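Teaching assistant here, posting this on the class forum so everyone can see the example we discussed in section. The complex has two components, and the goal was to see what a joint structure prediction looks like when all of them are supplied at once.
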Amino acid sequence: MKDRKTTHFGYQEVPVDEKAGRVADVFHSVAARYDVMNDLMSGGIHRLWKRFTIEMSGARAGQTILDIAGGTGDLTARFSRIVGPEGQVVLADINESMLKVGRDRLLDRGIAGNVVPVQADAQYLPFPDNTFDCITIAFGLRNVTDKDLALRSMLRVLKPGGRLLVLEFSKPESKLLEKVYDQYSFRLLPFMGKLVANDADSYRYLAESIRMHPDQETLKQMMADAGFVDCEYHNMTGGVVALHKGIKP
Amino acid sequence: MDPTFRAGFDAALETAINAALRYDPGTRARLAKLDGRALALDITVPPVPLVLCIEGDQVSVRHYWDGEISTRLRGSAIAMLRLLRDGDATPAGLDVTVTGSSALLAELQSILQDLDIDWEAPLARLLGDVPAHTIGSALRTAGQWLRDSIEQAPQAAAEAVSEEWRLTPPRAQFEAFVEDVAELALATDRLEARVALLREKLAARGGN
């Protein structure tokens, strides 16, 4: 019998073709309370991480922006205001439930006209080459099965000179912070998930997937290997989160 | 500084500015005419560089800005605040360096001097018109008293030091003393000259 290729799903090894489905199940489960949980889990700091991402994007009026794994539309809402009626923001997410929550939430806030929701897989982005001025992926890359493939796909659809911003959990700079963070992630996080969303397993997966995600230097090298130039990263909150930036040559 | 803290500072400042603007529609309308302009403040004391971008009728506070800067100011925070709030203040007088368009600076100075925030409106929404007006009047009186006190503070402090605590002489007494000293100096000079003259005469007689 031929061996099936595997990849990680949190701390588990699963067949490659199963990961996307299992990640989808997690996000179907948490979509409705995703925002509440984000605020609760990060103490609202995720808004500051996203704010810094917006600043580093250098987005301007009239530009075309792709917000991959845009989830509930936090970044899209801000980009929509910046690019204005002449620009366009594509809110992309592989997960139908998350996309629906995001689209409805944007409409409820009166954000429409220059926002297009698209259900899309980051590994196979359904857009022509050289389409976007900027691509952001916030807390999404770690859930992608083949990250190298996704990075190359993003490079393809970026315009030359366009920038990719990857906002993702990373490795804390201090050992002490890492220990505190571990206790928080593996004890408190699933407990809060159980309490608020009645779903401890999904939040345990989130904590595990964060630990399995490449650290700052590894991800920077992966971006360079995919073809990005001027790759750099900024640690935030002591390295709990890092923002990586790369330019399409 | 960790970008998280910096983003928190920018977010707080931006929220405060836009919350204040919400209650001054006139200023918002004038700001909207400057849509897309960016004012860079290279604050040297404390060292907090920031960029104020005008987006529609709102102000966005940024740390990083790749776009065009219309006007750049460099100086201390207090000097910049005085420059923006005081129509008579000049950049040179406050040691503030200006590069780029001075028209934007002049327009912002004019907008900030006319800033008239209706603080009663949010209070009225919370407490009702009558309590809001009572609180508003009390706050206005207190504000005026505070402004007057700040204006008179240097003179009051000088009077207290000289008249009340007698740590320094009163100005008039000091000036009279200075005049006396000057007169004494002149008289001493004259005396010295006369003595020198007498010495010369005596020397001349001794020589004969």
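For the discussion questions: Chain B has seven helices and five strands. Strands of chain B lie at 38-43, 48-55, 58-62, 71-75, 97-100. Think about how each of these relates to the inputs above.
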